[in-house]
Each structure stands twice: as C-alpha cells, then as structure tokens.
C-alpha cells in the first residue's frame, strides 16, 4: 500500500485545500494528513491563531473522502512524524522547491517521491481571515439557532421519573480568607468564616433532577453515621425520597471536604471506603432496581468508583433496563467500561474517555479517537465527552461527531458540573428531545453550573432564562455563590 503524506494548519478549510488533498490522494492508496496542534499554530502564526480548535480542524479533515487519517503534532514542523511514518510520497501545496520541503531528504533517502503541487484555485487562508475580520455578520442576541432547544422543552421536564443508581456522598465546604503564609510550612493560613453542606455524587444528580422539575428516585448506600444522617436531611429538604437508601454496616458515608478561599479551592480532603460492596448489598440493590424500573422513564448510573457499581451489578441492571426498553445513561470514573456495554449513552470527561479507550489522555486527538472507539466497542447509541472549558463533543451512531463550544462566561468551579450534565440529559431524553438538542441543553446547563463555587443544583428558571436570551446572561457572579444555591451555610460567630 502506497502512503501519501502532506501537512498543514488548515485553520480555515477552503476549496483550494480540498482540491489539493484530492490530488494528493490520487498519488497513492492512502492519504495521511499531519495537522499542526493549536500550540504549534500559535507558535507559527501568532497569538490570534488558530481560529478553529485542533479537534474541530481534525474533524473537518476526516470528513473529506480523500483523507484516510489525520495525525495532530505539536512540533513546528512534521519532520519527526515523517521520520516515523516513512511515507512513499511526500506532498506540499504551493510553489515550494523540493529541496525546501521539510522531510524531503528523509523520503528521498528511502526511495520515495517528493512532489510540490501548486494551488489551482485562487484561495488563501490569510486572505480569507482578513476578509472575515473586515466583514460584519450581526445576529440577534435573543435568537436561538435552528435545531437548538427552545425554552418550552423545560415544561416537559415536570413529572419525568428518573431512576438514579450510584455512589452517594456528602459534599462539605469550609470558606475562608487567606492573608498570610504559615511560619510552620509554606502553606496558606485560612481564616474560616463559614461552612456549607450539599448532596454529592449520585445524590447531586438527583438534586439537579429535582430542581429542574423532575422526580428522582435515588438508590444507593450510605453509612449509619452522622454524615449519613446529615445527608438524609439535605435530601429530604429537596423532596428526594429516602426509602431506597441502604445503610451498609461498617461502611462510612463518603465525605468530600473542600476548603475554599477567595472563591478558589485550596485543598480537598476525602473520607471514604472504596472496597467492593458485599454480595448481600449488591443483591438488594439489584432487586430494588428491578422493582423500580417499570415505573420510571430511564435509568442513570452515576459511578464514582466507590465500590458499589461493580461490573456484575452494572451488567445486570443494564440488561434489566434493556428488557423493559428503558434507556440507560452512564457517567463513570471506572477505568474499564466493558460492563457498560449495551447502555444508551456514556458521558465521560476527556481524561475518563481516554483511559477507557486505552489511549494517552494528553494525546492531541484523544477526544476523536476515544469517542469513536467507545461508540463501536461498547455497542452504545452515543458518547458525549465533556471537555471543561472546551465544551463537549457528541458521537452518535450513524452520524458525524458534533462539537458544542462552552457556554460559560466565567469558570469558577467545575465541581459537580458533570452531575448537572447527566441530570439535564436524563430529563431531556425522557421528554423526547433528540441527542443533539439534549447535548446542547446539557452544555448550557453545565455553563451555568461552573459559574458558581461548589456543588450546586441549577434551576429550571436559570436554564429557561439562558435559553430565552440565546446566551448566558451577563452580570457579575454572586458575591457568595454557594450561599445563593440553596446550600446550608453556617457562618462562624
């Protein structure tokens, strides 16, 4: 098989590029395109570039029939990549002399060909960027793009029943200020001014479902300790039933304590037991899920790898749901996703997706590769990979990937944003929304969540206002964000 290689930034993919790539592909059996990463483009073109992120540039190139593979590289030139690939034909667009083409010496030494293909169409990336910058394309601020969720969809959330299985925990916050460094060690001294408690993990998923108008049915284990009793009180105040919480003897309630100063998390302390749950507990949980599934719209598995969602339990409840034609959404921190085969939707973050797909998380094209692999390997309908400040990418069976840029104005704290995403997705799907509309709605909900410090449940009114505006509303963040989100704040006297 004869391999052809070419490379470039492809910041604005235009007809000249398409023509060049088709001509390059005709010179062999397989065309590999080396794509400069975002950092590489910035180094070459300046701080204003690229206009299009590397994952989106790679996605556009892969959609071309002429391109067989895209490899993102971080160096200024593709010399190392050419050395590793050893292509049969090296192609460069434009009027480059062969002896000035990077990698030419390597390819020629190995008996390959080096070809300079002049552009046949009058397009220039720099020229296009200058024309775009000089033009004006005003859009109404309140307009919602075609196919995006409309505010009315939130009315359909009310009464939707979502079964939530997973690791239930208590999130604790200590708030304070930092004015000096300790003389005992190079660490900040925090003067505590208050604290707060919130449901965490699967309990936060349930809290978000409730605050958005849905009916969560929470199933999981807690300890018979003070933290467990505090957590029960928090759930009761949010109207979340306690009847399916199982007290596991000898296992403490998981507590995550975050110490926050000047709206920044300084340190987190975890109190937990992650040993596998006992057989009797797993059997009881499975029996409960089986009894509840017929009366719910869908099932959410919120797996924080704390010992409850073991492979045998996950596989069993997914089969139960499949038999009853109930969709299953999985949000898991497990390293092995094989037990989630047959679920409807997976919602890992970038690092979790890479780990589950068996690739390096810092690989530039990890999102595209991981999403594609998980979609095929696990026979799921879709994979939605969350990427923090970069938004989300949706991989849906039989469709091209869709990238949703972040909708957050300012990122204060990503704690619990994944739970908000899962809760919003569950209600949107239960209301009949398509996957792209569901993902856009969840992306907007996450954008609202990260603008506040700490684990918090967003409300239907917040989401409705953001949808009605067509963007997140402008304005300063609350002075004390966590206190304004329905959490219990106790200030020191």
Explained architecture:
- The protein is 32% helix and 24% strand.
- The protein has 2 domains: 3-134, Rossmann fold (3-Layer(aba) Sandwich); 151-491, UDP-N-acetylmuramoyl-L-alanine:D-glutamate ligase.
- The protein has a 9-stranded mixed β-sheet, with helices on both faces. A 5-stranded parallel β-sheet has the order 3-2-1-4-5.
- With 493 residues, the protein is of the alpha/beta class.
Low-confidence stretches: 136-146, 471-493
CATH superfamily of the largest domain: Ribokinase
Helix amount: 25-40%
Number of strands: 19
Alpha carbon gap, first and last residue: 76 Å
Approximately how much beta-strand content do the residues carry? 15-25%
Tertiary shape: elongated
* Helix count, DSSP H or I runs of 4 or more residues: 15
Question: Short summary of the structure?
Answer:
With 493 residues, the chain is of the alpha/beta class. 32% of the residues lie in helices and 24% in strands.
What key phrases describe this protein's structure?
nine-stranded mixed sheet; 15 helices; five-stranded parallel sheet; 19 strands; alpha/beta; 2 domains; Rossmann fold; 493 residues; single chain
Topology of helices and strands:
Elements: E1 3-8, H1 15-25, E2 30-36, H2 38-45, H3 54-62, E3 69-73, H4 79-85, E4 89-93, H5 104-109, E5 113-117, H6 125-134, E6 161-166, E7 168-181, E8 188-201, H7 202-211, E9 215-222, H8 226-237, E10 245-247, E11 254-261, E12 264-271, H9 279-292, E13 298-303, H10 311-323, E14 327-332, E15 345-346, H11 350-357, H12 366-377, E16 382-386, E17 392-396, E18 402-404, H13 417-430, H14 435-449, H15 460-469, E19 488-491
Parallel strand pairs: 1-2, 1-4, 2-3, 4-5, 6-9, 6-13, 7-11, 9-10, 13-14, 14-15, 15-16
Antiparallel strand pairs: 7-8, 8-19, 11-12, 16-17, 17-18
Helix pairs in contact: 7-13, 9-10, 11-12, 13-14, 14-15
């Amino acid at each position: 098989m004869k391999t052809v290689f070419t490379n470039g930034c492809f910041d604005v993919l235009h007809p000249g590029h398409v023509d060049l790539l088709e001509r390059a592909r005709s010179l062999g059996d397989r065309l590999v395109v080396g794509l400069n990463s975002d950092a590489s483009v910035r180094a070459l073109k300046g701080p204003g570039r690229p206009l299009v992120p590397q994952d989106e540039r790679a996605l556009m190139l892969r959609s071309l029939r002429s391109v067989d593979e895209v490899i993102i590289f971080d160096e200024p030139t593709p010399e190392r990549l050419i050395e590793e690939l050893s292509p049969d034909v090296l192609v460069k667009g434009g009027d480059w002399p062969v002896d000035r083409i990077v990698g030419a010496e390597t390819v020629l030494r190995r008996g390959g060909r080096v070809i300079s293909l002049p552009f046949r169409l009058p397009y220039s990336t720099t020229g296009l960027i200058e024309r775009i910058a000089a033009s004006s394309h005003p859009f109404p601020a309140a307009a919602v793009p075609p196919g995006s969720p409309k505010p009315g969809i939130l009315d359909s959330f009310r009464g939707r029943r979502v079964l939530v299985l997973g690791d239930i925990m208590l999130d604790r916050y200590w708030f304070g200020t930092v004015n000096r460094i300790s003389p005992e060690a190079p660490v900040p001294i925090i003067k505590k001014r208050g604290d707060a408690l919130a449901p965490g993990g699967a309990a936060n998923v349930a809290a978000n479902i409730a605050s958005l108008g849905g009916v969560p049915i929470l199933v999981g284990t807690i300890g018979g300790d003070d933290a467990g009793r505090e957590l029960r009180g928090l759930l009761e105040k949010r109207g979340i039933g306690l009847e399916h919480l199982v007290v596991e003897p000898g296992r403490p309630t998981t507590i995550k304590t975050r110490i926050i100063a000047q709206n920044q998390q300084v340190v987190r302390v975890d109190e937990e037991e992650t040993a596998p749950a006992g057989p009797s507990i797993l059997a009881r949980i499975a029996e409960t899920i089986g009894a509840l599934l017929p009366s719910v719209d869908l099932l959410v598995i919120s797996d924080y790898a704390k010992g409850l969602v073991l492979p045998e339990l996950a596989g069993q409840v997914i089969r139960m749901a499949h038999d009853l034609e109930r969709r299953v959404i999985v949000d898991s921190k497990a390293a092995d996703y094989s037990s989630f085969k047959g679920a409807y939707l997976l919602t890992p973050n970038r690092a979790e997706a890479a780990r589950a797909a068996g690739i390096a998380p810092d690989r530039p094209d990890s999102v595209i590769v991981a999403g594609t692999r998980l979609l095929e390997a696990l026979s799921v309908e879709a994979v939605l990979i969350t990427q923090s400040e970069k938004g989300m990418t949706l991989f849906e069976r039989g469709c091209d990937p869709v990238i949703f840029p972040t909708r957050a104005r300012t990122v204060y704290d990503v704690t619990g944003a994944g739970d908000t995403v899962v809760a919003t997705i569950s209600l949107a799907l239960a209301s009949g929304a398509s996957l792209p509309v569901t993902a856009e709605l969840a992306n907007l909900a996450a954008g609202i969540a990260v603008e506040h410090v700490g684990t918090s449940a967003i409300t239907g009114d917040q989401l409705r206002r953001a949808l009605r505006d067509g963007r997140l509303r402008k304005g300063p963040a609350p002075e004390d964000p966590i206190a304004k989100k329905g959490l219990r704040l106790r200030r020191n006297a």
